[in-house]
Every structure is written in C-alpha cells, then in structure tokens.
C-alpha cells in the first residue's frame, strides 16, 4: 500500500544511513510524543552493527550514517510511507525542509546505492510508473558518484572505527584525558543527566557512558533487567527536553572525573550553551554537591540557575518554600589569637571582643582515630603558622545549633589576603568538606570552592586521602615532676637560647611551651617579675588584663627562651623573647601589668631594664600603678636602685605590726595574723558564720571542686569549719585544702566541704604568708631541731614584727619579717633582741645575702653575719662539725 499524502515529522535520530526514527511534532501531556521508524525505499546503505557488536559494521557504515545525521537530525521533514512489510517495518520517502529527496542526496554523495530489488523491478524505464521514474533518477545519481569515486565507491579504505568495549587501554586513555575537552556525539539519552556518547579520538569513535557533573534530574528507568521500572515526576519531560536538543548532536565533553564503574562525569557543551545550566534554569535538575565540586570553572552559574528556578517555582521546585533571608552585616575584620583545633579559631574583633568560630562546612580529621589523629595535628599546625597574629576577614555563614552536648557555634569563612584559608587546608588533605543535606542552606558561602579543593586533595592522594597513617607528634612533659625538672636544668641552661612554641597562656607570666629540639613540653615562668593572677578562684586586680596582654602577643607564636632556674612545681624560670627581640617580662612591666620580683630580678644581668620599665609605668600611672603616690614609695624606689647598683646606702625599713603566728610550715616559713581590731572582728564573724552553716545537714559538695576554688571545709585535725582554698585534687573524693585564715593545709573529704557563702568569700584572707628576713633555712639534718627551737620561741605568743620587705601583692604577697617579743623594751635592735638573731646565734639558720631584706639593708645583714660567725666558733646547732655550707653559699 502506498500513501500519496506527505506527512510532517521531526527526525529524532538516525539508525543507519537508510533508516531513521521520526518523532511527531505534536506533543502529549506527561507522555512522550509518538515515534516511528522509517526505512528509505529503493536504496540500501552500508549496514551499521548493534551497540554491542561493532564488528558487524560494514565499510563506510559510520561515515554514511554520520552524513545523514548531520543532514537531517532535529529538523522538520516531510515523509511518505510507500509500503509496510509483514513484520510491520515501514518503507518510504523522506524530504529535507527544502523538499529535496534524502535518498537521492545519499546516492549522489556515494553513501548509498540503489537496491537490487528496485533495479530488478524497474530496470526498464516507464514514464507512466512514478516508482520507475524515481528509480531511474537514483540509478543516474549512482553512476555519477561511482565515476567520482565518492563515498562507498572510494578506492581508499574506510578508516573510522567504532569501539564499544572499555578495555584497559581505553580506560587509560580516558584517565589521561581528565581535564581535557573532547569532541563527541550524543548517541542515547537515558534520562536528563545520563547519556551514551561517542567520543571522537584519532579516527576512533568510543562509546562511553556520561553523567552530567553538578546536577541530577528525575529518574527514568524502564525495561532494565532486574530493576523495577521507575519514572519520577517530570522525568519524561526532562528527557524529551534533552533529546530534542542533544541526541545525535555534535557537542564537546570536558572529562572531570571517572567513577569506579568507568562512567565519565563531565560537562556537556552544545554550541548553544551548557546543557546542565539550561536544565537547571528550567527546573528539571537540582545541584548535587559531590559532583558540583568537579564542574570546570566552578558551580556558581549552576547555583544561580537553580536559584532562578526556585524563585519561579519551576517543575521540581513547584512546592519550594524560600527560607527567611539571613541577616546581613556579618562580615568584619579581626586578628586571629588562637587556633583551638583543626577547624576552630579564636579572633579578636575591632571592639576588643574575643570570639570563637568554626570553619564553615569543614570537618577535621578525627583525633580519636589512630589512623587520622596525626593529620588533625598537622591541620592545626598549618592553621597556626598561617593565621596566628594575622588580620583576617571573617564572614559568618551560619550558626550550628547545640547538639550532643556541644554548645551552639558560629561558622564562618575565614579569608587571609582575600583567600579562603579552608581551600589550601582541604587541598592538602587535612580535612573534609561536610556533605550537607540536600535542602540544607546552612553551609559555606564558598561551598563549591571547598568541594573542588577537597576533590583536588583526593585526586592527588594528599593527607587523609593518601591511605597512610600519620603519627601524632609526641612530646615528653619535662615539668610533671620537680625532681626531673631539676635534673634537666643544667642541660637547658647550657643550651642558651632555645626556639619554642607557646602552646597555652595560663597566666600573664606562666605558659605551657613546646620545645621541638628537645621533644619536650615545659611549664615556663617569666623571671624577674610577679604578675597578678587571673582565672577562677581568687583573681587579682589586673590579672585578666595581664593574661590578655600576654595572650595577644605570644599565644601559639614561635618564641625564643633562656632558662635560668626551676621552681618547686617543676616549672622552668627564664626570659622569653617574641618578635625576635622583645622581652615579654619588660613589656608587662612597662604596661603596668606586673611588678619587679626583687629576688628573681637580682639573678638577671639586665635587671636595670626591669626597674626602668616599672618606673615608667609608675610615672604614667598605668595598670597596677593607677593610684600610685610617689612619696609613699620613695623608700622602695631608693632600695631598688641601691640594690641594682649594689651600693650600701639603704636604710632599714621601719614598719612595725602586732601579730601572731597561726601556722608554721618549717623553721623559716610561716603564716601570720595581724592583731588589728578589724582583723580580729572579721575572724570572729567568719568563724561564727561557718559554725552555723557547718551544722546544716545539707549542702555538701557532690564532686571534687576545682583547684583554686574557695570552699567551706571541716578540717579533720580539730573538726572545726574554716574558709579554705583547694590546692590539689588528691582523688575524686578528697582534696588538699589550705585554710585562708590560719594557713594550715590538710587533706579533706568532699563530704566535709560546702560551697563558701559569697559574703564570706569577699573578706580578705586573714592568714598572710611570711618568712624570717635575712635568714636561710638550716642544712639537711637540722631541719627538725630548728623547727622545734623556733616553735618554742613563737608558738602561742603575740609578737611584734618589722616588715623588712615584701614580694608579690594582694593575697599572694610574702612578708619578710624580723620578729620581736611583744615586751621588748625601747627601740628594737635587729642584731641584739630580735628572734631572727636568736635563731642565728643558736646555729639554726645562716644569713641569705640574696634575701630582699639583706639587699635592702646590707648594714644589718653584715651585723647578723657576725652573729653567725660567733655561732660557728661556738659550734652551735648546725655548726657543731664546723662550716657546713658550700663555698658558693657563703
């Protein structure tokens, strides 16, 4: 049966050079338009094999098919169905938009020939038979192409080859082509973002699966063995949208990645533009983060296209509900003061406020994972070296809510010199980009850049992506044991200046340092000064300011140190230099945030600079010296100058107080209570309140308090409640507590401790730490005898004391006292009727020339040395076997 009526259709694709798929120009809602296959009558072209069997391709089949593809695919054509076979296959004629016979064009160009069946039926021309006329025209056209050696009549062999199996050689070729742009033809559209494509490379057409990078469309899965059919909403419409624009069209493909299943992930670009962007702008696809990181040039255009579709509520976004706009004004300059961990930093903003931020959308390596913990340290060190002390731009992206016991956190993009610091961190494989939920808009403002950075690190197998174990740097704590510190001291002092990194600032003058050369961590205290304390417990005036001053200058900075001594807690004492030459102790003094420690500074060669810095702060009335009155300190200034210049021009200090000794710790150190009416009244009030509250059955602590915390405690030695300060947590149920008003220290169960009433904690501690001025404790073996002798002189007695010197201030001061009996007649004389003199005369102490009192009053010190000489000659006390002091101590 022959149809004489020409119909219209659109050529969807070309099966072979003599067979095409036609699609109706009329669309149907939610259904694909009708399609039909039309074979061209009268001609035959080289046979084109199946997808799986390219070896079935006849010579020139690929060239012939490609000729027809370029001629008519995607165009509106006319066609006539001439007849239908018993199998249902339709044969007919096809006409270009210009009404030219497609079969004749193919024959003229040598890509098809007249079929033998047509020749035999119409070998004799018959003007009355339309079919005969058509066949004769085709025979003439074939004769011309044969004479020209066109197409299949060429004397050259066909050199195009089709490859449909991805062997190792082809896979290697594809991997080498990553990042490159190749010419291609879309062969099949499975759904809107998954295609089969012929890549064209050196006369080879390689059939590969391709997935669009950055986006995903609705699924269309029909007729796949072993899988249930699935067509998601808008899936058919999206597929047709792509087919009408891309199927069998020439495109370029930028290969951005290859999956484990050898699927190419890339960008497909038609001469009219990027298909992924067009799909997204029309609401057919949504962005998927894992492959958005791969998009060449970044995913910003895709993000913009998606936002347009969302605002218009197109297709898959038809139910989209915009979230409330984020508040603006969240971008500011700041200085990085601390790197807390591998993705958290502290900054100081322009108002002087310290703020903590997590890096937006960045997850650090797990510290708890032994395979990755070393990378967490590397990440923290990378951020430290890059950011500490640097000015950065902070852009707050979102707030992470409180979860799993962790507080809410502000998450921000941190830029150094206009570059996102998270990018090099991820490129080095020192973290991961968080995979947010699909509709979670709380993410980094440069999320795609972070994904690309992580993809780069993954591809290069850097850091956590390398599969290698990174060991945590191990440092020995050289300050955890005082005996160990003392043993290491000679080694450290001989080393001179050492490079170190400040790991933590505990107080204004106390730090935790890492000394890489020694693989050690040490506690370090600045020599020559005394800083007010900060933090919990009993913070002192300007303690917080001193702590902040030091933190801003040296926290996590590389510094130089000189170790001079070690204290009884295991901490090392010395000088610390930052910014190459700046002495932190001198800077603290100059800012009025520290005082010269007379004994400690006397051991330093540059003591003059310490006194000069302190005097400058006094003159400018800075910090601790805000209320400084010059006349009240004349004696102190004079004694400091004279001590520094080592001239014996000082006068002994005269500041007499009535006092009692409340606790003796050894023969030279004790606690006193000053016998003043207001002090006595305060003590009576405290004891009365504690007696009442102690009898209450409730209120005991449920867990051990922190070191430095003030408590009300029942001391086991007498069963009485006292104000106390926690010195040490001995166990989860016991603490070492010092009485604030008497000075004694005992181990107390937490069941015998209660929180201290705020009105009692505000009263200044009654007990003041003191020691005998001028004196040094006896040598080993005589401590107990000395203690018993001194105890017999002072226990239970009201005494008179002259305050010869002080070190420290506030509740942490130490008084250097000369003690006298309260009934001493006339003006007390140091070398005649002082208890200090009696202790020396009995041979239970020696003179300490470095004692602050000795430096202030060298004349009195010299007189006491004469007393010692008399004790030596009389073989008294520790001198019974002669001079027992080393030469250096004499």
Automatic annotation (TrEMBL):
<dbReference type="Pfam" id="PF00567">
    <property type="entry name" value="TUDOR"/>
</dbReference>
<dbReference type="GO" id="GO:0005634">
    <property type="term" value="C:nucleus"/>
</dbReference>
<feature type="domain" description="TNase-like">
    <location>
        <begin position="180"/>
        <end position="319"/>
    </location>
</feature>
<keyword id="KW-0963">Cytoplasm</keyword>
<dbReference type="GO" id="GO:0005829">
    <property type="term" value="C:cytosol"/>
</dbReference>
<feature type="domain" description="TNase-like">
    <location>
        <begin position="330"/>
        <end position="467"/>
    </location>
</feature>
<dbReference type="GO" id="GO:0003723">
    <property type="term" value="F:RNA binding"/>
</dbReference>
<dbReference type="GO" id="GO:0006402">
    <property type="term" value="P:mRNA catabolic process"/>
</dbReference>
<dbReference type="GO" id="GO:0004518">
    <property type="term" value="F:nuclease activity"/>
</dbReference>
<dbReference type="InterPro" id="IPR016685">
    <property type="entry name" value="Silence_cplx_Nase-comp_TudorSN"/>
</dbReference>
<dbReference type="GO" id="GO:0031047">
    <property type="term" value="P:regulatory ncRNA-mediated gene silencing"/>
</dbReference>
<protein>
    <submittedName>
        <fullName>Uncharacterized protein</fullName>
    </submittedName>
</protein>
<feature type="domain" description="TNase-like">
    <location>
        <begin position="5"/>
        <end position="155"/>
    </location>
</feature>
<dbReference type="InterPro" id="IPR016071">
    <property type="entry name" value="Staphylococal_nuclease_OB-fold"/>
</dbReference>
<feature type="domain" description="Tudor">
    <location>
        <begin position="704"/>
        <end position="763"/>
    </location>
</feature>
<dbReference type="InterPro" id="IPR035437">
    <property type="entry name" value="SNase_OB-fold_sf"/>
</dbReference>
<keyword id="KW-0677">Repeat</keyword>
<feature type="domain" description="TNase-like">
    <location>
        <begin position="496"/>
        <end position="627"/>
    </location>
</feature>
<dbReference type="GO" id="GO:0031332">
    <property type="term" value="C:RNAi effector complex"/>
</dbReference>
<dbReference type="InterPro" id="IPR002999">
    <property type="entry name" value="Tudor"/>
</dbReference>
<dbReference type="Pfam" id="PF00565">
    <property type="entry name" value="SNase"/>
</dbReference>
